[in-house]
Design a protein that fits this description.
The protein is mainly alpha-helical. 44% of the residues lie in helices and 9% in strands. It is built from eleven helices and five strands, in the order H-E-H-E-H-H-H-E-E-E-H-H-H-H-H-H. The chain has helices at residues 2-17, 40-49, 72-75, 79-89, 98-109, 149-153, 156-164, 177-183, 189-198, 203-208, 212-216, and strands spanning 27-32, 53-58, 124-125, 130-132, 142-143. Strand 3 and strand 4 form a beta hairpin.
Length: 218
């Protein structure tokens, strides 16, 4: 049973964490698909009982990174699945997480409500050294085989793609946690309002739980 091996590994890592608590962060990343949508509560309980951070996000059908287009019919979430996810994201455990609040608001309104900073403060490099704005966008910016990362980011092609970021068809179905996390520090008033409503006692959890301290250099 694969899960038994995973669980055994996590238990061993938790023993290591006892002596390295200051810098040993553990978490789980789960992709929500039709086959596991009814297990979301169990995933969350598993993470919380072990004091692990969690990233639980909906499947994205994309050629890049995930390469799952051939399994689209099996993986795609159905309307009844979306209702389960909406209720799950209302869980109190999600209350102080910027990502889940943004995703929930988007699911309710039908509009994506965050600033995408793809190709501004992050990018995606595929196994073949080709550079893309993000993991799900297939508009190639350049190739590290032929150019340096600096040359690619300062190219005319990169400038043209930046103007399109957020407007590609696939952007409308994006629930990629990275896009929301990297945009947090550029959300301005929206992110400040999130911190304010979360309260000072939850600030550290808000900042550190998803690794935001790396972006804030603290």
């Amino acid at each position: 049973n694969a899960f038994l091996w995973v669980n055994r590994t996590i238990e061993a890592l938790q023993e290591q964490r006892k002596t390295h608590a200051d810098y040993f962060f553990m978490g789980i990343k789960a992709t929500i698909i039709h086959d596991n949508v009814n297990e979301l509560g169990n995933m969350l309980d598993y993470a919380n009982k072990r004091n692990m951070f969690f990233i639980i996000s909906s499947v994205i059908i994309a050629q890049k990174r995930f390469r799952n287009i051939r399994w689209k019919d099996r993986l795609m979430l159905k309307e009844e699945d979306m209702e389960v996810i909406r209720k799950f994201y209302q869980n109190k455990a999600m209350e102080f997480d910027f990502y889940y609040r943004k995703i929930f608001d988007s699911m309710v309104s039908g509009e994506k409500k965050w600033i995408c900073t793809a190709l501004y403060n992050y990018l995606f490099i595929d196994y073949d050294r080709k550079v893309y704005p993000c993991p799900i966008q297939d508009d190639c910016v350049g190739d590290l085989t032929n150019n340096s990362i600096s040359e690619i980011l300062n190219s005319q092609k990169a400038a043209e793609i930046r103007k399109k970021v957020g407007n590609y068809p696939i952007c409308r179905q994006c629930t990629e946690p990275g896009t929301v996390r990297y945009s947090q520090i550029l959300e301005g008033e929206g992110f400040l309002d999130f911190i304010r409503t979360s309260g000072p006692e939850n600030l550290q959890e808000t900042v550190f739980n998803k690794g935001l301290h790396k972006l804030l250099l603290i």
